[in-house]
Amino acid sequence: MNCLDFEKFIALHVEGDLPERKGRAVAEHLKICEHCQEFAERLKASQGMLKSLAEESVDDAVLQELRGRVLNGLVTETERQRFPLWRYALGAGLAVLVILAATTIRHPSKDRFAQVSRVTSQPPATVAMGETPALARSSSIRVAKDKGVAGRRARFRGSLPAGAKPQPSVQLMVKLVTDNPNVVVYWLVD
Amino acid sequence: MEPRELTLRMTGYAPDMAHSSSKEESTQLLRRAIAGDRAAFDQIILRYQRRALMTAWRLLGNREDAQDAAQEVFLRLYRYMHRFDEKHDLLPWLYRMTVNVCHDLHRKRSLDNGLALEEVNPPSTDVDPAGEITRAEQRRIIQRALKTLTEKERAAVVLRDIEGVSTKDVAGILGSSETTVRSQISSARVKIRKFVDEVEKRHS
Questions:
Q1: Which residues of A touch B50 (CB under 8 A)?
Q2: Is the CB of B71 inside 8 Å of chain A's CB atoms?
């Protein structure tokens, strides 16, 4: 090991920061090496300068100012702990959702209007009482041929006797007019 | 809620029990502060503000930044004091916070990490009649020498040589091994010595 290698150990040795065994080795080297002795002395001097920084004082005014700043900061910090940011974010999010929901209910989307208007754009012709509407005419009335399921079905549908000629049924159309001129509800009743 | 940048846990750190009474007092104050006693926290500020401020000043090399850093240290202490492990001493915890805050501030403000020797004015005004550099000028030179160190070297040497913390405790504060810290301290001392040599050479 040359003197350059010893430098880093001497830097620790002068402050007693080396483990005992290494410290003894450095001490032995210093006894025989003038160059390293001189380096150790210079290191002790610069260490003295470095340690003298610990003696520096701070003005009480500076410390008072610091204390005041910290105490003021604690007020904000306490508020922040009481009402953390995530609570504000959650509240704002909920408020936005409520506003959006309210707006949607008050003003339904135009698509739904369009759909309704398409349905009601060609309302069926008004049918006079007693006249069979087109829908009713197109439907056929089944005749029960025998008893059983078909018979029960026949009873359910009006229970025509076998061989009887089916009479055209009378249907009633109810027209429900709303405030909205685009919305007219037709209801066919047998 | 876990803050990212904060690595305040004192894992693996076991300080010496040299100042047990002081430690007990600090722990009592901290307990009261956690319970909501603002006066107790004020006592903690009074007790440690000088150390926090001076350490930050050594690490940042600027008194205004040091004040900002020290303020942030106490605010972080207030924010996280409920996490403090009473088995440990408060002072190393504060040192660790100070080092972390200074690191954050240093990065944020992109301070000049290295000051070239050419930028250092030779000491001319503070020379006494005997031709020796005055104590005040010596301190200024050392402050400049500290700026030539890496951030880790500076933290290690400030804690060890100026604050007088043991190598073992410095390792605990910085979260490094004792061997690493010893190497950083050794390197820092040699660099400071060489910086002083250069300045003295110019002066002569």
A1: 58, 63
A2: yes
